[in-house]
Amino acid sequence: MVLPYIVGAGVLCAAVCFMGEFLVKPGIHHKMFGIRLLLIHLSIFYFLYGLMLLFTGRIVFSAAVTVLVYFILIVINNAKYLSLREPLVFSDYDYFTDAFRFPRLYFPFLGVTGILGIIMAAAIIILGFCIDSSYVDRFGDPVAAATIIGGEFLCLLILFLLRDIKKQNTFCIRTDIDNMGFAVFLWSYFLAYLDKPQVKSPFEMSGEENEKQERNNRADDSDIAVQPNLIAIQSESFFDPRKWNANIREDILRDFDEICSESVSFGKMEVPAWGANTIRTEFSFLTGISPEDMKGHRFSPYQISSTRWPVASFVNMLKRKGYHTVCIHPYYSGFYHRDVIFRKWEFDEFLDIRSFGDAERFGPYVADSAIANKLMELCDEWNGRQPLFVFMITMENHGPLNLESITESECQKYFKEPVSFHDYKDLAVYLRHLANENSMLKTLKDNFEKKNYPVSMVFYGDHVPILPKAYELMGEPEGRVPYFIWNSSSSHKGERVDSIEQKKTDTVVSSLAVRWLNRFKK
């Protein structure tokens, strides 16, 4: 009788996967554990096992592959958690496809061990398929067919009836994964991912407002010509490490400090990303939408933004005001679906890696100085023609930093007192890029102060860098990043603020654009 073997293998598969959850980082306690969670967990894995069985007809192989794939997910989750302090979420599926589209950006983080592990897992799957003799005729045997297909429908029915599990989501990842367990957590976030966000950007304008703005533009073309150029710089992995490690030389960001002292506003800002996931910060800045309002899409907001979901950014608003809008980013425009989304947001141009063919590199990526030169050329080109908005996304400081080389003598020059080269090499590489960023900002400031057109510039870091060895030695830095708002026409001492809202509550990057656009006229 084949029925007990089919059902038994599926139940055993789910049981082994449940035991595997105790390997998940951070530790899981299944605080919501009960019959509902047990049924959902069993249905998820029995369904996946049954699907594999329908394709292959091999009982042992199907159960083993289901378990193996789940354990691979656990390994990936643990690696992500160690680097980014965040477990795997459903929307991370995009990174699996991006890893093959943009291998240079992802494979170095896997390392030789990770790549060999993937190859070994694939080899085990192929070998297992070849040697497994537990074949069942799932199409010719009516009992086997009814057992497998009936089990699949039963699992789907249970998952459908218990779909309100998504109402338990707090979207605090550590809380939810601790409450539900890894598999049910992923399923619950998948259900939340199916719902479109019920939020609008504060920059969204009605049809009547658009028409009014366009009439105003036509009525006074001369006013449009003298509007300031608006420059937004999103700096890769930029944060100020000097308070985190008092041994770092103060003058490494000397020019950055000077600009801050002359800015309209500067201080620290909370961002929804840590170590990676630039688009979380980027989306909030451009749209003014907080991560909390994005619910299940907060972890990868560009996925839903690249669909027909209507979401505006302040770039749309600037277009109505007569601005020529440009994004400069020395990487592929298709990464994160930016090419699709930025067209929706009415960027006139996207100068991606193709515009930097012969540009200077520093490390693996285009140097910050090269991007700055492109920006200054663009501003001069459009001077007197049309006000310009440029969104510049730097790339030089992108990791993995541990793969870059640096001499011991160069390493020591970034610190007040001698340090262990072995322990501080990666941090020194980061500080070298930080010094380049400081020089870039000085170049831009000096250039814009000499021009006959006004410029308002906002600058901020997207997240702190990935520096596991340094964090192990000194502890992790706070997640806040620096920002400033600087106007070429009104350089004066700015008031330091530790909150964009000038409140004691945490600041979110979604407030920055509103603050900037309200201040550039001053």
TrEMBL record:
This protein's major location comes to membrane
* Gene Ontology terms, MF aspect: transferase activity
Kindly give the membrane topology term recorded for this protein: Multi-pass membrane protein
InterPro entries recorded: Alkaline_phosphatase_core_sf (IPR017850), OpgB/LTA_synthase_biosynth (IPR050448), Sulfatase_N (IPR000917)
Q: Where in the cell is it found?
A: Cell membrane
UniProt keyword list: Cell membrane, Membrane, Transferase, Transmembrane, Transmembrane helix
What's one GO-annotated cellular component?
plasma membrane
Give the transmembrane ranges. Answer: 6-24, 33-53, 59-76, 105-131, 143-165
Species source reads: Ruminobacter amylophilus
Q: Please, which domain of life does this record's source organism belong to?
A: Bacteria
**Identification of the protein by name:** Phosphoglycerol transferase MdoB
* Residue ranges of every copy of the Sulfatase N-terminal domain listed in the record: 228-510
